[in-house]
From TrEMBL:
<dbReference type="InterPro" id="IPR026444">
    <property type="entry name" value="Secre_tail"/>
</dbReference>
<protein>
    <recommendedName>
        <fullName>FlgD/Vpr Ig-like domain-containing protein</fullName>
    </recommendedName>
</protein>
<feature type="domain" description="FlgD/Vpr Ig-like">
    <location>
        <begin position="200"/>
        <end position="269"/>
    </location>
</feature>
<dbReference type="Pfam" id="PF13860">
    <property type="entry name" value="FlgD_ig"/>
</dbReference>
<dbReference type="InterPro" id="IPR025965">
    <property type="entry name" value="FlgD/Vpr_Ig-like"/>
</dbReference>
<dbReference type="InterPro" id="IPR015943">
    <property type="entry name" value="WD40/YVTN_repeat-like_dom_sf"/>
</dbReference>
Length: 280
């Protein structure tokens, strides 16, 4: 392969950064559209998404609000009428972003399964793949799948989905290591004073088969109630849930280092418990 200035395009004004992190192409109406994610290297340039439709003779940046680690594309006849051949998905540091008009306008697609099983708005997305009408997305927070082009999601954070508190069944997924586990916390240990949100709080995982009102309580080693994370909150059945604890007590003070216990109870008397270690 050989390159020349004539067929590599004029990049001086229209190429945000000098480090290319992704390149993909899509044929739309008989014309090949090439998409490139770029970002600065050693401080030169800016983050952005670039595009050419004339084999690299000319380039334009479609946005400098987002970078791109990966691209995927919609197709004609998609189950969502908003998705067409002109739809571009990009995995970016800001999350999953989409353009429905070949890059003229971009929006972030929020990824959440339920009110407490979701990716944070600033979760970095590294991979995106379209398989027929299914959208797959990967990040440092796990894997997500949407079968309706981003309207609803299933989130897979790990290999272990717990058995339900009330029926002892597993809603989603399998586990060959923790067959009897109904709840666990992760990360564990965790450090409330850390600046990184992924490690400054812990998530308590559980599942229910039937609609229930849930209470999650934290106790110290002596059995003293430290905080109720939720109290009598309604949770719909047939789902896995995660409740977050930031390592603070009822007065919003960070608790001392040590081992703490959590108990999950339903209004029907079902329960599960586990341990959490706080280390700062």
């Amino acid at each position: 392969i050989s390159w020349s200035p004539e067929n590599s395009g004029s990049l001086e004004d229209n190429w945000p950064g000098n480090f290319c992190t992704a390149v993909e192409h899509k044929v739309v109406d008989g014309k090949t559209h090439v998409w490139v994610g770029s970002q600065p290297f050693f401080g030169l340039g800016e983050y952005g998404i670039c595009h050419t439709e004339d084999d690299g003779i000319s380039w334009e940046y479609k946005t400098m609000d987002y970078n791109a680690w990966n691209f995927a594309f919609g197709h004609a006849g998609a189950s969502n009428p908003a998705v067409t051949d002109s739809t571009v998905f990009a995995a970016s540091d800001s999350g999953l972003v989409v353009s429905y008009d070949l890059g003229e306008n971009w929006d972030i697609i929020p990824i959440y399964e339920s009110e407490n099983l979701y990716w944070k708005s600033d979760t970095m997305v590294f991979g995106v793949l379209v398989v027929e009408d299914t959208l797959w997305v990967s990040s440092s927070d796990g894997l997500a799948k949407s079968e309706d082009w981003g309207k609803s999601w299933n989130i897979y954070r790990g290999v272990t989905r717990v058995k339900t508190l009330d029926k002892g069944k597993r809603n989603v997924g399998i586990s060959s290591f923790f067959d009897d586990v109904k709840t666990y916390a992760f990360p564990n240990p965790f450090s409330p004073r850390r600046l990184n949100d992924d490690y400054s709080r812990t998530r308590i995982q559980y599942a229910i088969t039937n609609n229930s009102k849930i209470t999650v309580s934290i106790y110290d080693f002596s059995g003293k109630l430290i905080k109720e994370i939720i109290s009598g909150e309604f949770r719909a059945g047939g789902r896995d849930y995660q409740e977050e604890w930031n390592g603070r007590d009822g007065d919003n003070e960070i608790v001392p280092n040590g081992v703490y216990f959590f108990i999950i109870k339903t209004n029907n008397g079902d329960s599960a418990r586990g341990k959490i270690m706080v280390i700062d």
